[in-house]
Amino acid sequence: MKDEYVGLLGRGIGTWNAWRAEHDEVPDLSSANLRGLDLSGFDLSRADLRRADLRGTQCCDTNLSGAHLEGANFFKAVLDGANLAGAFLYGAAFLNCAQLIAARNWSLAFRDDALGCGAAIPDRTSSG
């Protein structure tokens, strides 16, 4: 099923976002190779992106709210305007304050202590 989700992403923002609007399921993109893709404006809310390769990915204005991004590799990823409300960023690689601050609602993301970036870190116990 994971390959079907990756294929659907490859069909473009219109196809993906229309599919998301019609289907109430959590896309399993865990460990997916999404390196270098332009996912700007895509609805990836609640998606399972644990350990995904997001190196060099454009995620401008992407909806990542509630997404599971634990262990994802964000090296050189652009998150400008991405919605990170309630996203889980524990163990995300190469994620730094400059990348976070460019995103929206970054202070509402569940993240490691090292990614405090001057804002309170949400209580880990409220993630369930």
Poorly predicted residue ranges: none
Find the structural class using helix and strand composition. Answer: mainly alpha
Q: Span from first to last CA?
A: 25 Å
Q: Tell me about the biggest sheet?
A: none
Q: What's the pLDDT, averaged over the residues?
A: 92
Q: Outline, from the CA principal axes?
A: globular
Note down, in words, how this protein is organized.
It is built from three helices and no strands. It is an all-alpha fold.
Topology (SSEs and partners):
Elements: H1 2-10, H2 13-22, H3 97-101
Compact summary:
This protein has 128 residues and is mainly alpha-helical. It has three helices and no strands.
Keywords:
128 residues; mainly alpha
